[in-house]
Give the backbone structure.
Amino acid sequence: MPDLIQLFQQRGRKLFVSLLIVWAATALILWFTPKEFKSETTSVASSAVASDPSRLFGAKVQHLYSPLGSPDQLDLLVGSGRLDTAYRPLVRRFNLIDHYELSDTGSKALLKAIKKLKKNASVFKSDYGELKVRVWDTDAAMAAELANALTGRLDSMHRDLMSRQNIQTRAALERGLKRLELSSDSLGEGERNRFRTLYRDLIEEYTLLLEQRPPAIQVLDAATPSLMADKPEWGTIFLSVTLVTFLIWLMLTLWSVRPSAHEGSAVK
């Protein structure tokens, strides 16, 4: 095994020259690499009490719920973050076809812009049970706007879903009340009035819930434009190329000073 210190003394100059060349090439490549900025939002699930119609007329019900929702409620939102439905309105709203400088037109350009936005965005649940929406873009302000808009879009999608369910429930209650009014069964007037009051109270609760449209998530930290580019990561890249260059130099140097077969026979 050759003496590494002696090896550095004899051939360290070649290593230094190699590093200078690699550093210069890396710096040149990184200088012309488009800078990317990262922005993200942090949200938590809303409490289930917000979507429970009984809370509107029952104060004691609120004690049955946590002030915040369960992290498990965020799984549906994370799943929705993989759907084109969440991104399509943002492409039109922010004119991302032009922003991404796509040459295509029509539906093909729309699909490419959606695909690029999905690639630059990520929706995930953190280890602390928070919903994270992260967006990368070459424009710091655009990255922040897209992150906030995507968070709002996910919330709106699930608000609409809950509203559709509540609309269907209210419609079923209204049909039940109508059948009660038109029925000619043997119910007494007192019993009929009790059911009539129950139906009307429930219809009123769902009507108020539809007017309120409770949020699916609560935003803790909105996205703001990054002051410095997050990509490319100069420090990490320079450290990596330095390490790789050193290892390659070391392997080539050890290979060049290895004993030849003839020298090995002579030693024996």
